[in-house]
Amino acid sequence: MSVSNSLWARAALLAAVAGMAALATTAQAHHSFAAQYDSAKPVNLTGVVTSVEWTNPHVYIYIDTTDAKTKKVTNWGFEMGPPHMLQKAGWKRNSLKIGEVVVVEGWLARDGTHHGNARRVTRKATGEVLGAASSNAQTLAGNANAKPPVAVAAPASGAK
Amino acid sequence: MRRAALAALAVTMAVGLAVRGQEAAPPEVPKPAPHWADGRISFSGSPQDVGNWEGPANATIFFEVVNGKVSKPRASLPTNPEFKDVPFQPWARDLYLKRQAGLQADDPHTRCKPSGGPRMFHTPYGIEILDLPETKEVIVLAVGAPHSWRIIYTDGREHPKDMKPSWYGHSTGKWEGESLVIDSVGYNDRAWLTREGVPKSTKLHLVERISRPNHDQLKYEAVVDDPGAYTATWGGGWYLRWSEGNEPFDYLCQENNRDPARMTGPKGG
Amino acid sequence: MTSASSVNKRFLATAGFATLLIASSLLLYGCGKSGSAAATPAPRYADGSIRLDREPGEKGFWDMPSATSLVEEGVTVATDARGKLANLADAEKVAPFQPWSLALFKYRQEHDLADDPMKVCIGPGSPRQMMTPGGVRILQDKNYNRVYLIFGGGNRNWRVIYMDGRTPPSPDEVTGTFLGNSVGKWEGDSLTAESIGFNTRFWFSNSGLPHTEALKLTERYTRVSHDVLEYEVTIDDSRTYTRTWKAKWTLKWMPGDMEEQFCEDGRE
After folding, report:
1. Interchain pair B250, C148: CB under 8 A
2. Pick from A153, A146, A51, A132: which is nearest to A94 by CA?
3. How many CB atoms lie within 10 A of CB B40?
């Protein structure tokens, strides 16, 4: 990796951590979040979409992740906001395709299962970022004034 | 490359700060509150001004201490008491602390149970306030949680004697100038007074005052007169924010509700 | 002085009075059809449009549905108040089933409606809510041009019918709920509404009639008199039934206010 790319990567990581820290401190008191999810345990996973449950009160997406070393496949589930709020954040019922690769950022469940609460989903193929209307980010993506997400351009070729 | 990275960092932090500021802070130049044709204050909108009231995610009825500092969410009323000054009876303070320690895992709200009183006013997805002077009632529709409705009778009636305790109790209301003052009794002790798990008993006599200081803010104040849980009367409140464009939308709690099973609290599974 | 004729007269008068008393009681408090020729007409707003809710100063709400189960109009089968058929052989008459849906309906009936999701506090949904005891009020919001229905039974939910002529959401995008997404308009004195966006986690009749996400309901609310609301619903689900079909029943105007009820299933 070139020097400029590693700077970019480091800054992006810093930005992501700062952003997530900022969000984590704003909306602590939502009813279900803290009892189910640990906002001190961020998670960032890349995987293949295996299913989408487009239901109230929460949409769930499931992805298969593959461990780079052991090649073990694990299925993870992520909770998001309700369908209506996701639609306000730019989702459609069939936005995510089974088999496509996504990056999910969120927080880990407390119950020890392979489950989390999603804050953001990025589609690898297009770079499109979809807010998750997460109950922890309700003031960002889950309110009526949320605008549809702006597609984030993928980093210049050669960067990860 | 460095400039771009710094820009990315700045944008992310700005977003984080903007999020904080999105609670119901007084607007820069407040638009005046609308009125109906007969001059009465309106808690609603119009076809050209569609919207309803968003329950602020951070508002609390009293100020907690977080990381050694008194935390004062922006949407909460500056006059709210601090936790140390709330006149809990010992059992009620213990219950509140237990609910906090358990991270609100036992919250009946997530089991689709309704919340009378303050909690309805800080539940997300919006509330619609229907002021019906012809039939002398005010009906509040809540989009979130149990997707249910509360009725406040403004026909001058008294509370019934010997009420069976219920989730919404019995509410009578009257207008004092441009404020709606609501008097309620008859609550069960199951719903939490607020999202944080503030306890109540069946002896609760709740007085709420709702006003609209400007177009974008609804001021909600609650006085808790509950000799079953507190040693004195106390109160607090917050501002709800006008959610422009928000309409009562399709939502339901019971469809695929996984939360209760997953609400393990701090101990984990 | 008593004579046979005066005794007879008194008897007839008493019997007549008793009959009148019984008849008016049945009219006022019974759940059957009220077809009194002297019925008070439906109240109206100053602009002449029908009021589906209270008049100023009045109390009341709609309840006491005249039908206790959803059966195609014109078909007569015996069911109990829970929707269980007296005779399983009558199953195929209830609605124009496809083979799969008849089999599922019979299964649910044979198993005594054991799987009814209302037992675990899933809501009655549409149109079952209009046959669920507990009451309903229909509030006309002339400001926003919406109609809200607020329910006393089931999970004390509410629904909104948007009357502003908007395009309904695409069936591919609408969020599925138990009460659907509704747009409506007035046709003379009748409120009509079309609803789509139903999920399949509820039973849309107490008898266990099946439906899919293709369900579309067309409702017609007509206040034929002060005390009687006629409710007609057309069921359009081409994946479940071989054609559209409809059912009709009435609700009565009851005095007072709806009581607060919420489903409790004991699973805290």
Report:
1. no
2. A51
3. 12
Listing DSSP states for B22-88 in one string gives TS-PPPSSPPPPPB-TTS-B-SS-BTTB-EEEEPPSS--SSBPEETTEE---TTB-TTPPBGGGS-B
Q: What is the pLDDT of residues C253-268, one digit of tens each?
A: 999 999 999 988 766 5
Residues 86-115 of A with CB under 8 A from C: 87, 92-94
Nearest to C26 by CA among C59, C72, C64, C54: C64
Contact between A45 and A121 under an 8 Å Cβ cutoff? The reply is: no
Residue C130 near residue C151, CB atoms below 8 Å: no
**Residue of C76, C84, C73 lying closest to C106 (CA atoms):** C84
> Which residues are within 8 A (CB) of B168 and not within 5 positions of it... i.e. 6 or more apart?
B114, B116, B150, B151, B187, C260
The answer for residues whose C-beta is within 8 angstroms of residue A147's C-beta and 6 or more apart is none
pLDDT at B175: 97
Report long-range pairs for C134-137 (Cβ below 8 Å, ≥24 apart): C134/C63, C134/C258, C134/C259, C134/C261, C135/C61, C135/C62, C135/C63, C135/C254, C135/C258, C136/C61, C136/C62, C136/C63, C136/C251, C137/C53, C137/C54, C137/C61, C137/C62, C137/C258
Q: Looking at chain B, list the stretches that DSSP marks H as alpha helix, in order from N- to C-terminal side.
A: 2-20, 90-101, 259-262
- The rounded distance, in Å, linking the Cα atoms of B97 and C266 is 26
What's the complex ipTM? 0.88
DSSP category for residue A38:
E
Residue with tokens 């960067």: A159
Whether B256 and A14 lie within 8 Å, measured CB to CB: no
Chain A CB within 8 Å of residue C260 CB: no
On the question of a cis peptide bond just before residue B30, with omega within 30 degrees of 0, the verdict is: no
Q: Looking at the partner chain, which of C173, C176, C199 has a beta carbon nearest the beta carbon of A92?
A: C173
B149-153 vs B170-176, strand pairing mode? parallel
Residues of chain B with pLDDT under 70: 1-27, 267-269
Q: In angstroms, what separates the C-alpha of B188 from chain C's closest C-alpha?
A: 12
C199 contacts on A by Cβ (under 8 Å):
55
User: Under a CB-based contact definition with an 8 Å cutoff, are residues C175 and B125 in contact?
Assistant: no
| Residues contacting residue C44 through CB under 8 Å, at least 6 positions apart | C50, C51
Position with higher pLDDT, C121 vs C7? C121
**Cα–Cα dist C173/B197, whole Å:** 36
Quick check: A82 and A134 in contact, CB under 8 A?
A: no
Confidence of residue A25 (pLDDT cuts 50, 70, 90): very low
For chain C, counts of helices (H) and of strands (E) = 2, 9
Sequence-distant (≥ 6) Cβ neighbours of residue C85 within 8 angstroms: C77, C78, C79, C91, C94, C109, C207
Taking CB atoms and an 8 Å limit, are C262 and B167 in contact across chains?
A: yes
